[in-house]
């Protein structure tokens, strides 16, 4: 990957984990519902 691609990837994951942790810390059932409403691993 080029340095520009790596920077874009780092920016993406920074935003992704920031949002993930915000939802997780807020106690929102949204994250739980999305993960646990699966019938099996094939749905993932």
From TrEMBL:
Entry superkingdom: Bacteria
Name of protein: Uncharacterized protein
Record organism: Agathobacter rectalis (strain ATCC 33656 / DSM 3377 / JCM 17463 / KCTC 5835 / VPI 0990)
The organism's taxonomic lineage, starting at the top: Bacteria, Bacillati, Bacillota, Clostridia, Lachnospirales
